[in-house]
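Problem statement: downstream parser choked on a complex file, so we are re-checking the raw output for the phosphoenolpyruvate run. The parser issue turned out to be on our end (a line-ending mismatch), but while we're here, posting the original submission so the record is complete.
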Amino acid sequence: MPPSPPVPAASSWAPDSWRARPAAQQPAWPDAEALKRVHEQLSGLPPLVFAGEARHLTAALGQAARGRAFVLQAGDCAESFAEFTADGIRDKLKVILQMAVVLTYGAGLPVVKVGRIAGQFAKPRSSPTEQVGDLVLPSFRGHMVNDDLPTGVARVPDPDRLVAAYQQSVATLNLLRAFTKGGFADLSQIHAWNQEFVATSTEGRRFEDIAEGIDRALRFMDACGINLSDEDTLHQVDFWTSHEALILDYEEALTRRDSLTGGWYDCSAHMLWVGERTRQPGGAHLEFLSGVRNPVGCKIGPTATPEEVLDLCGRLNPERLPGRLTLITRFGVDAIDDRLPPLLQAVEGAGHPVVWVCDPMHGNTFTAEGGQKTRRFDDIIGELQSFLRIHRATGTWPGGVHVELTGDDVTECLGGVERIVEGQLHQNYTTTCDPRLNARQALDLAFRIAELLRS
Ligand code: PEP
Ligand code: CO
């Protein structure tokens, strides 16, 4: 049974109480009336997820907080209105299911599967403008806000995009529910998750070995007379959605009171997180997330101090409910050794039950000579290795990993077994924001994590 939800937040909290706080990274919507209309429209539309589902995810994350499960949070940096196909969603799900099997089989742990999907449409930006060729344009802020085309008109924030993002999220989630509950995620389909360009690679063949091992185990149990057809866990998968709760007008409009418990839930996704650029103490984003009862996350970058992190644990999880709060650290391979240990000591010392998740992507981004943002596979592995080693030394549980990936054969991150080099980045570079692991690199990463967790 999922735990009972936390006691109600301070009585001053309301879905719109964030409006009294400074809100970083909000678009300069040019037409306040149009925004208001959209807000009213969204407020009347059905929720994407239910409160009871969010409570189940809190319970599953609670197992990761206690060291009994591992979280795999993965998906696009930014979902795209332009690239929205059933095949794209299926292929992303395939690689996440493959990674989860590798981790479950290799490390013998239940894996909590959370997508950066069905709502991950808004991006915080380091600078309000960006240079494209000779032009200086307002920054692209994700398809929920503006378009990535390099023209001034395309970059004007348009509130109708909030509705389009909602609709795309509905369709995506509908397909995810069909795939994960309707047979595609059945363990007997495991070979079908290996896409052709993956199956022919070393990691793909290693995956086939695991798949055959699982096949044999299922046949063995069947031959022993064990009836597997009633075992839901073999035929269905719990797959949860998450995104950065960045555009608070959108999140507020999808926040609903649960009829069962009376608590407020942000029904735009099962889990929401606040980003590195919007986690200001006393800021609007922490205020908003403090009052919804979904499981929530917070990104933690290299400038975070132990005091700041303790402050946000207090704001986001005052009841100290295991699974309510996930801290997603993203320091970079060179900073993690220095930055992570004092935070672990402070949080553990204060007795806050958090899920520690490593995002080895966002601290390792740089611009290649050709101008593309990229990341080195070796840096990503390096940060993960340090994460696991430091947790082992501190006696804390490395609760999971958070990565940006796609099921496609993209060339956005350098290295991996294909040894992608800078000169190849242009070959299939399709992300609208940050560089993602391709399916082979993602599977390789899962094998490395499984080995590290086992050792
Ligand atoms: C992201 O997750 O895409 C992101 C912008 O991360 P961060 O807030 O950690 O920079
Ligand atoms: Co990103």
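For whoever reads this later: Residues 77, 362, 404, 433-434 surround cobalt (II) ion (ligand 2) (CB under 6 Å).
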